Every structure is written in C-alpha cells, then in structure tokens.
Amino acid sequence: MTAKKKKKLVKKEAKKTVKKAMKKAGVKKKNTKNAAKKVIKVKKKAAKKVVPKKKKVSLPKKQNAGKKPAFRKAKAVGTSKKRNIKVDVHHLTRVEGHGNIVIDVKNGIVKKCQWQVPEAPRFFEAMVRDRHYSEVARITSRICGICSVGHTLASVKASEAALGIDITEQTRNLRKLLKHAENFDSHILHIFFLVAPDLLGAPSVFPLVEKHGPVVAMALRLKRLGHEWGALIGGRTTHPTTVVPGGFTKLPTEIELRELRAKILAHEQDLVTTADLVLSLAGKIPNFNRPTEYIALSSDDDYELYSGEIKSTLYDGSIATYKVADYRSVTNEYLTPQSTAKWTKNRHESYAAGALARFNNNYDKLHEKALAVATKFGLKPICTNPFMNSVAQLVEVVNDVYQSVALIDQILKDGIKDEPLVRPTKFSKGAGAVEVPRGILFHEYEYDKDGMCISGNCIIPTNQNHANIQKDFEALLPFVMNLNYNNDEIKLAFEMLVRAYDPCISCSTHYLDIIIEE
Amino acid sequence: MYDDSVGIRVANHLENCLNYHRAGIFFVDLSNRVFDLISYCDNKTSHIVIVDTGRLGLDAGDYKVIRLEQARSSKKRLPKVSVDVHSTDLFKVLDFARTLYKELPIIDLLIIEPKEIKLAEGISNDLARKIDEYSKIALAALERA
Predict the structure, then answer these.
(1) CA closest to A241 among chain B residues
(2) Which chain B residue's Cα is nearest to A239?
(3) Is A155 domain-assigned?
(4) Are A85 and A214 part of one and the same domain?
(5) Which end of chain A has a smaller Cβ tally under 10 Å, C or N?
(6) Do A276 and A236 fall within a single domain?
C-alpha cells in the first residue's frame, strides 16, 4: 500500500470513529476535521501511557472523628497530571494576624505551595532592654491581647529563673488557675467563632446568628465565664496586673473563689451541649494525616500548662525530654524568605505545638471527663491529623473546667495567705516556659546587678508551627489533587488547615536583625 | 496608649478607689477586646455605659454623654462577613449583638476628648485630674433611666 493510500485510510477510519462518537453523544452538528485530529492524538497518547508501579508507604493509623470521610469524592475535574490550580488567599480571615496561602500548579506540576507570613516584626525583645525586672512582664504581655496571660506568666517565670526567685505553692496554684482561664476563653473563641463557620459552610459567625442564635448565645456565655474567671485572678481580662515576679499584688478572697467555683460548675450543661454539637459536625473534619513531631510541656503531676520539662513525641511514639533552660536546642530558629516570622525544627524538619501536641504528650494526665470527650470523638494518641487540633481544644476546655475546680478546692483547703513577694537572690540569665492556647511559649531574659534587663528572647508557639504548616501544605496538596477537588474546595481545605492551628501570627513576628545594603 | 487608657482608669477608680459596690453593677475592662462586649448585651443587662476617648472637637479633658442612637462610627463599615477579635468597630459589634439578642440594653457613651494618644504608659494631666469626675458622671448616667 502506498503512503498516500495509507493516509487516506487513516482519515477515513478517524471520520468513522468521530461519527460514531457524535452519534452516541447525540451531537448533530458536524465538525469532524479537528475532532479527527483529537481522536488521533488521544490514540497516540493512549499508546504511550505507562502505568507506574504502586509503592507501599506505611503511615501511622489514621485518626478521624467521623464515620464518613469528610473529603468526599468530587466530580472529576481533570487528572492530576493536567491540573491547573491557582489559589491566592491574601490575608487569611478568621485567624489572628496576617498570613497568605499561595498555590500555583501548572499542568499538574507544583510551581508554588507556600504559607507566607508578611507581618511586620514587633521588636519586643528590644523594648525590654534597659527595663527593670518589675516592668518586663507588663511590656511583654502586650505582645498579644488573646494570650496576654501566657506571655505574662512566661515572662515572670523567666525573670524568676534569672533572679533566683522560688515562688510559693499558693502562687503556683493561682497562676495555674489563671492559665486555665486563658486556655478556656481562647479555645471557646476558636471553636465557635473561627472554626465552626467552616464546618457549617458559612463565611463567618455573623450569618450563623439567624439560624443558630441560641448556640451563639451559649458560646458568648462561655466566653464571658472565661473573662470573669481570668479577671478575678489576673486583675483584668487582658494584660493581667496582679501577676508579678515573686507572687501576686492582689489575691482573690475565699468568697470570690467559692463564687467562681459555683459559676464554673453552673456552665456544665453548656459544655455537654458544646461537645455534642461539635460531635455532630465531626464528620466534616478532613481525614488527613502526616507523620509529625509534637512538642509540649510535660510533668508527672498534671496535664501541664504551667510547669514541667519540654517533651517531644514522634508519630512512632518515641520520646525525648529537655530542660526548659535548654529550649534553644529544641527550637533551632532560622529564617526563611517566605516569612517574616522565623521557623523552627527539632528532630525532624518541623514540629507542631498546641492542643494536639499537648494531647499527644500528656493524654494520660487528662481529667476523666475530658478523657470521656476524647473517647466520644475517637481521639487518642498519637493523632497525626492537624485538623483534629480543634477537637483537642474542646477536650482541653473540659479539662480546664475540672482541673480548675480541683485547684480552687486545694487553695480553699490550704486557706488564702497574705504572702509578701519573694525577692531576688541573684541577677543572671533565666528561661521560662508555659503552654498558651496555641502551644509552648518560651521567654528568656538576662539582668544586670541592678535588676535591669540586658537582653530578652521570646519564641512563640505560632512561629514554631509555621514550618509545620508549610510541611502540611506540601503533603495536603497532592492529597486533595488526587481526590480531584476543584479550586474552591482546595482553597477551603488549606484555609481550614491553617485555622486548625489557631495561629496568632502577629505574636510570632518579633525581632529581626536587619542588614541594610547600600 | 496614654489618654486612651482613661476608660480602664475610670473602671478601676470606681471599683477600687471609690469602692463602689452595688448589687447588679459590674465594672468590665474590655481593653482592646471590643468583641467581648457582646456577651454583656443580653437581656439580663438593663444599661451599659461605655467610657472611652473620642475626637469631639472639645478641649482636652472635656466630655459628652450621648446615647448610642445619636452616634455613628467614622470607620468605613466592613462587610458583614468579617470579624477581627483584636480591633473591631464598636458599632459593628453592637449590630451583631442586636441581631443575636433582638434588643439591646440602654447604651450610653461617655466620650472624653484626649490630649494625646500615643504608645506610652501614663495619662495626660488634663485627664488624670478629672478621673473622679468622669467616674461620677458614668455612675449618674448608669442610674438615670
């Protein structure tokens, strides 16, 4: 057969194939020329297609709250190989501070997948220099309006370590009580106002008021409990005034503590309702897991928010512990071009701090009622699903309530004593750590012989989480692409991921050394 | 925030210095957490007095008491979907409270003309010497229907 005849035959066959396909599809208009070319192209491509060998990857057991996978199989929008995805969320909403989600995929190739932090540095570590130790916590509490209690406590702990101050048991218990108030208040805000709208398909809490008014009112009642609880011990809702190095400037009375105890327990039913509500939405929590390192404070006594050593738990269960004074060997801060906040790493490229990290490290220290809530959600260590951080926060809310009632009982049993402030016995360098709602927080100061601050350093849980968010991004993208999510669904998944960390972004940008090149 | 701290100072003065305690009256320090005001707007509250600085074109230290209905925000209204827990427009927050609770308690604003607002501790003398007066005005506003 001549080449010319062969060509004619191919064309004839192509026309027949196209006609058949058009008839099947019910297409009447004939436009066979380009269609024929496409058919030939598809056939050629089909001949070249190579099916890759399936690789076995062992991952930790998946943890998911709901029975149905939340990532439903969407309609195919094209294979991963050909996908073009563009997501550019400039200043993500429903988080504290400013962060950008940038995803750029062209023909299935990932060009960019970044969590960017453009917040300006805040220079608090510079502000505390040449300040007396009595002023330092007042300044650093202004790092944040949500976790000002945590910053105050970390600051006084660091100052007390530097000044050789050993606080009394009463001071320790009152500070723990204050810490629980902050944790409770912040988690309620996060669960109801920042995360719930995503689970209910709303852009924010505002549209939820019409259909879910009683739930919003309950959330505000719980928040108000948190303010009043914190204000009683700390002197104010925000930027506590009673916590100073060495003790408290003002103590609650026994009557006030009894009233607080009654007020807390009066909200028990609200907690039950909250747990049931979140459980009803749990099926919408994405079922995504990634092997991660988890870092939190830990001790033998308590589900720690205030004391203890630094504990690291890997996804495989291996544990490492470190002294708080050696925190720099854990955090290993470094700069990255996509973020004005520093990143951190420890045993792996990144680690997570926060409620889920605390849960994975200290599960066995939870109050039994908090454990019961965790069981309802199927949440158990070691959970490697970052979206479950919000459920871990709910577990902690219950724990905060019952551990605080126990603390109040202990304080009342011991009796409230009017104790003088413990004075410094030395002037040197010291570090302090507490767990704020978003994770482990470090402060460190050095003082001269007059008690004036020479230097300061703060490492915030959110800046410890930035690298982990980036690693989650890099794993989440192929995950959602393989599920054939459309661009809007991908955008939402990434927004939800960042929100799950409950980031406090403007807290996380502190002090940068700047070199000006002229 | 220098003179912008006058609201907290009045609340502290009423509670700690005047030792003003009467059943059913609470002093709440909102600081920059305006969003937290919403929980106080429920139907168990009959009257709220908000004490803060505001530019009214008066001499530093002078003040006005106005009902909420007489005031408008100078900020551009944000679309209904956004909320910022750190620094939210008071009027937007009260809109939200009105939607939630259907009706707001009586809300008075004690607005004090600042001399200077800056990132510093302390308060100007123009305002400092009148804290007692502002406290009494706030109480009087609370006690009138």
Answers:
(1) B12
(2) B31
(3) yes
(4) no
(5) C
(6) yes
**Does one domain contain both A238 and A318?**
yes
**Shortest CB distance from B29 goes to which of A209, A216, A231?**
A231
Could you read off the pLDDT tens digit of each residue along chain A, which spans 518 residues?
676 776 777 677 767 766 765 665 554 544 444 544 444 444 444 444 444 444 443 333 444 443 333 444 444 444 455 788 888 888 787 777 778 899 999 988 889 999 988 877 778 888 899 999 999 999 999 888 888 999 999 999 999 999 999 999 999 999 999 999 999 999 999 999 889 888 888 888 888 888 888 999 999 999 999 999 999 999 988 889 999 999 999 999 999 999 999 999 999 999 999 999 999 999 989 999 999 999 999 999 999 999 999 999 999 999 999 999 999 999 999 988 888 888 999 999 999 999 999 999 999 999 999 999 999 999 999 999 999 999 999 999 999 999 999 999 999 999 999 999 999 999 999 999 999 999 999 999 999 999 999 999 999 999 899 999 999 999 999 999 888 888 889 999 999 999 999 988 766 665 554 444 44
Across the interface, whether the CB atoms of B81 and A204 are under 8 A apart is answered yes
- Structural domain boundaries enclosing A87: 80-116
Fill in the amino acid letter for A416: I
DSSP 8-state assignment for residue A194: I
Residue B10 is part of a domain; what is its CATH number? 3.40.50.1450
Count the domains in chain A: 2
Residues A100 and A155 in one domain: no
Question: Shortest CA distance to A222 belongs to which of A161, A264, A194?
Answer: A264
Backbone angles phi, psi at A212, to 5 degrees: -125, 40
Domain match, A98 and A244 both: no
Query: Amino acid identity of A36?
Result: A
Would you state the structure tokens that stand for residue B91, as one six-digit string? 């009027």
For chain A, the straight-line distance linking the first and the last C-alpha, in angstroms and rounded, comes to 75
Q: To the nearest whole angstrom, how far is the Cα of A236 from the nearest Cα of chain B?
A: 6
Q: Do residues A209 and A257 both lie within one domain?
A: yes
Of B8, B33, B39, the CB nearest to A145: B33
Mutation target vs B (from A187, A238, A495; most B CBs, 10 A cutoff): A238
| Domain CATH code at residue A278 | 1.10.645.10
CB-CB neighbors (< 8 A) of A145 in chain B? 31-33, 85-86
Partners of residue B8 in chain A, C-beta under 8 Å: 236
Find all residues with CB under 8 Å of A58, minimum gap 6, and list them.
none
How far is Cα B47 from Cα B142, in angstroms, rounded to an integer? Answer: 6
**Is-contact A380 A418, C-beta < 8 A?**
no
Spatial CB neighbours of A80, under 8 Å, sequence gap ≥ 6: A108, A478, A481, A482, A484
Q: Is A98 on the interface with B (CB under 8 A)?
A: no
A469–chain B nearest CA distance, Å: 22
Range of the structural domain that residue B19 is part of: 2-143
Contact assignment for A209 to B100 by CB distance below 8 Å = yes
CA distance A209 to chain B (A): 6
- Taking CA–CA distances from B92, the nearest residue in chain A reads A206
Q: Which two tokens stand for residue A435?
A: 């767990």
With CB atoms and an 8 Å threshold, state whether A220 touches B38: yes
Q: Which of B29, B30, B82 has the CB atom closest to A93's CB atom? A: B82
